[in-house]
Amino acid sequence: MLTPLDLAFWHLESDEHPMHLGALGVFAADRPGAAHAAAELLTARAAAVPGLRLRIRPVLLPVGGATRELARAFAPGDHVRLAAPVADFHAAAGALMERPLDRDRPPWEAHVLPGADGTSFAVLFKFHHALADGLRALTLAAALMDPAELPAPRAARPAAGRPARLPVPDPRALPGLVRGAVSGAVRALGIGTSVARATWGVRSSPALAAEASGTRATAGVVLDLDDVHRVRKAVGGAGCTVNDVLLAVVAGAVRRWLDERGDGSEGVAPRALVPVSRRRPRTAQPPGNRLSGYLLRLPVGEPEPLDRLRAVRAAMDRNKDAGPERGAGAVALLADHVRPLGHQVGGPVVARAARLLFDVLVTSVPLPSLGLRLGGCPLTEVYPFAPLAHGHALAVAVSTYRGRVHYGLVADAAAVPDLELLAEGVRAELAELVEVSARDTGLVPGPTAT
């Protein structure tokens, strides 16, 4: 049975706002026909990955519920598509991200995009958010890559000494159940109160809002992870994290973008929702989502780069002190308190409320440090893509891979025709952070971001 959060993602979807996440991987082509061979490999390997055979279907009870089941007639060729050669991987990815997944099949696709110059090809993976969160999607995509020596996940420990039987209510457990229900209600009330408080005094920008056009544009930026560490060590020492720097880069890039397009950034502090995984590292990855989140106001209106970084660090420290299951960013946990029929009936209404809860999604998707290959071709770049919520113009996802940081930007193409301007702001912001942190600390800056 789908968990409440998975069910929410399933019912939040519309034609203009499909709820799939994606990743665009770029591979070096070592021979002619490498893209065609990659498509054949993906098709052959998909048949052996059980998680890729799961489809979602409604159930009679509970009303409005849904479950995952193995598709009886699973045809990998319906999910893996080989495109004609393309000159711009991101232009092709944007058009493909517009299209909702087929809800009658296992909700995922892999589009192989041969490069027009023959030196590279790309694969765009799409997974419905009801099937997988970022970590689970990574696990499924990695299962299609060439075999590698990956750490084996720890299997969930089975309950010892308990025979399989239907659960029988124990009257002695009733007080605990009541306390749990009350505690859950109190937590939900606390989250709701935090959400309400988070809307007070918000100064966002109309550029981050959009009427639903159903169009998508994507862009990618690659930065040097050493530059990020250089800034982190120079400014915050042990207390400053890589994620703090990456969030500050987003704040600075949005500031540059707003100023250059003439919208102005003075006083702007949009609410960024930062998802937090509740999965345990190196454990088996079940289907679906295990997510909470933090909410912070990006200091876009702050004119100094280092002050923006310090503001982000302070806000994230406050979030971490409270924990990922409290505060306005934990809105995903409210799904647990809605009955299945409520998700089915209220999904369209909730989808339209996303603009009231936050202004931009900024998520991080971890990748393995070892090099991935497909058909012997090395993965050289990988850009994660987040779903774009209703009423939002922009979503940002970040991954680190083999010493480089990859920003994947997804935007409503009608609302943000200048997405490359924002991408350039990402590059410029880290370069300035490197420069000013070196100047203020007396350190000699290393190579600038690429």
Written as H for each helix and E for each strand, in order along the chain, the element string is HEHEEEHEEHHEHHEEHHHEEEEEH
CATH topology of the largest domain: Chloramphenicol Acetyltransferase
The value of Rg in angstroms is 22 Å
Q: Main beta sheet: strand number and arrangement?
A: 6 strands, mixed
Distance between the terminal alpha carbons, to the nearest Å?
Answer: 45 Å
Strand order of the largest sheet: 4-5-6-1-12-11
Overall tally of structural domains: 2
Approximately what portion of the residues adopt beta-strand conformation? 15-25%
Q: Tally of extended strands? A: 14
Average pLDDT figure? 82
Amount of helix = 25-40%
Classified by CATH, the class of the largest domain is: Alpha Beta
Gross morphology is globular
Query: Helices and strands: which structural class?
Result: alpha+beta
Helices, by number, come to 11
Low-confidence stretches: 150-193
CATH superfamily of the largest domain: Nonribosomal peptide synthetase, condensation domain
CATH architecture group name of the largest domain: 2-Layer Sandwich
